[in-house]
């Protein structure tokens, strides 16, 4: 039986670990925090339970496939609920769009909110996005970016290049199909799912709104943090182990350059045939492993633009508004100014003066201490914590002042809960960096800025024998569905344990 070490109990690491354990491997996971989940974190305080990371499940078939690979149905371990309204959007002109959770209902809803003919514009765009999705899902998202894998796949038809538009930006594709500025703003938002700028993100990201609207928006009763708990329980049932409060300080290699284990901060050394790193690739190659190959890879992984971070408010709300939607987006008055600030154009990286505000306010009795209370997650896009570049989120007073500004902006846009907040907790990019060990608190690893960005993202199979990468900084990218896919790709690359092969 082969011994596999997984560094990090984030969703990518857990997804790889449970699949490998189900395939007959002996799996040990080492996590520096006290709980599993990584960026899919949970904070509880005075009976309020807050998800601190993803608040929406998309592509539920990926989650279903993951649990099926461990021998159970996802429905047996998680209460997945499809949302009737995916999100409510408030635009700067005061228009409100309640986006249905069913694809067939979307054109009529857009027409009713934005005017006749706007639903047809969005539908035409989605038809193009669907073609892009069909071409890219199996060929790119679900397959490793290795030469051997590419050789095994039949080459895509030349027509595929025209459909995917590799040299066109997401913003450019939107302008081709969408005349209404509000629809363009809606599309721009989907670039933020990968921490990117829609003016530079590739047109292929049009697959994000398509997949969300075609497969629905879902919530897990009790909060999305239960996904990590369920994966941990499956790993336990399959014989895997997780050691918490355990920092990995190095990945070790034998004289041939092959990975042979890890070193821990408590002085222990753990031998392993294979190491799966669910850590930011810049950390893996920049500090955890010291070989000439790692040094070359460290330079490469610094090439892509890092994704931006997020500034989070966790609000315990008394007597929340009765009509508050589950998900709500309050758009910025100037979206381009927001992206300029995030990526440091026209000056260095800086907090956005009047950012788009995202609110998740589930109506879920399992996450609040009693009736007439709400556990709200409020997120705005924010530049990475990078004191060397002049963006120091630990500067005295900055986080508290910015939190006050966000609450004022919410009030300006029609959601005033300042007098209803029982308590609040702030998670700045600096705090996210400390909690997740992600450089700068970058939520998605590297951004998708530029047509080559996806191919600059590190592959799952390292050039260092025995080392594999999972998570948002590696292929196929950030976000809950993609990091689960990264775990699947790694498990398939490693394959079943020898005993499992012979027994079969």
TrEMBL record:
Enzyme Commission no: 1.-.-.-
Extract the InterPro entries matched here.
Amino_oxidase, Carotenoid/retinoid_OxRdtase, FAD/NAD-bd_sf
Residue ranges of the Amine oxidase domain?
A: 12-494
**What GO biological process terms are annotated to this protein in UniProt?**
carotenoid biosynthetic process
Alphabetical UniProt keywords: Carotenoid biosynthesis, Oxidoreductase
Pathway-wise, it operates in: Carotenoid biosynthesis
Q: Pfam families from the entry?
A: Amino_oxidase
- Can you provide one Gene Ontology molecular function annotated for this UniProt record? oxidoreductase activity
Does the UniProt entry include the keyword Ubl conjugation?
no
Instruction: Tell me which family the UniProt entry assigns to this protein.
Output: Belongs to the carotenoid/retinoid oxidoreductase family.
Name-wise, this protein is: Phytoene desaturase family protein
Q: What is the protein's species of origin?
A: Williamsia herbipolensis
């Amino acid at each position: 039986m082969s011994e596999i070490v997984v560094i990090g109990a984030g969703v990518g690491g857990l997804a790889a670990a449970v699949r490998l354990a189900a395939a007959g491997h002996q799996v040990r996971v080492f996590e520096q925090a006290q709980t599993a989940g990584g960026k899919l974190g949970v904070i509880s305080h005075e009976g309020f339970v807050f998800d601190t990371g993803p608040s929406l499940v998309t592509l539920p078939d990926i989650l279903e496939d993951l649990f099926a690979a461990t021998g159970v149905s996802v429905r047996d371990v998680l209460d997945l609920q499809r949302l009737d309204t995916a999100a409510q959007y408030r635009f700067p002109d005061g228009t409100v769009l309640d986006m249905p959770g069913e694809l067939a209902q979307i054109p009529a809803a857009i027409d009713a909110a934005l005017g006749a003919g706007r639903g047809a514009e969005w539908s035409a765009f989605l038809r193009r996005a669907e073609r892009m999705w069909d071409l890219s899902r199996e060929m790119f998202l679900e397959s490793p970016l290795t030469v051997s894998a590419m050789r095994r796949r039949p080459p895509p038809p030349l027509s595929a290049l025209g459909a995917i538009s590799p040299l066109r930006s997401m913003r450019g594709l939107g302008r081709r199909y969408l005349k209404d500025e509000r629809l363009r703003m809606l599309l721009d938002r989907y670039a933020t799912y990968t921490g990117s700028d829609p003016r530079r993100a590739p047109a292929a990201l049009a697959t994000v709104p398509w997949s969300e609207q075609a497969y629905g928006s879902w919530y897990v009763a009790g909060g999305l943090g239960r996904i990590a708990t369920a994966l941990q329980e499956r790993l336990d049932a399959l014989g895997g182990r997780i050691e918490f409060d355990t920092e990995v300080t190095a990945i070790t290699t034998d004289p041939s350059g092959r990975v042979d284990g890890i070193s821990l901060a408590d002085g222990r050394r753990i031998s392993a045939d294979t190491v799966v790193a669910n850590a930011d690739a810049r950390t893996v190659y920049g500090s955890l492993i010291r070989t000439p190959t790692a040094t070359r890879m460290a330079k490469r992984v610094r090439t892509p633009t890092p994704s931006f971070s997020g500034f989070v408010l966790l609000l315990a709300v008394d007597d929340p508004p009765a009509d508050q939607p589950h998900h709500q987006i309050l758009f910025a008055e100037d979206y381009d100014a927001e992206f300029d600030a995030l990526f440091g154009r026209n000056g260095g990286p800086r907090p956005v003066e009047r950012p788009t505000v995202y609110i998740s306010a589930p109506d879920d009795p399992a996450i609040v201490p009693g009736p007439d209370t709400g556990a709200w997650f409020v997120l705005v896009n924010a530049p990475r914590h990078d004191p060397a570049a002049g963006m120091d989120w630990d500067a005295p007073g900055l986080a508290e002042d910015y939190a006050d500004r966000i609450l004022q902006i919410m009030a300006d846009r029609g959601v005033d809960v300042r007098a209803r907040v029982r308590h609040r907790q702030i998670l700045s990019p600096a705090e996210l960096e400390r909690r997740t060990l992600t450089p700068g608190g970058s939520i998605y690893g590297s951004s998708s800025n530029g047509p080559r960005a996806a191919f600059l993202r590190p592959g799952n199979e390292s050039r260092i024998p025995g080392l594999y990468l999972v998570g948002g900084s590696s292929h196929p990218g950030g976000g809950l569905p993609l990091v689960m896919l990264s775990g699947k790709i790694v498990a398939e690359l490693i394959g079943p344990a020898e005993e499992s092969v012979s027994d079969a």
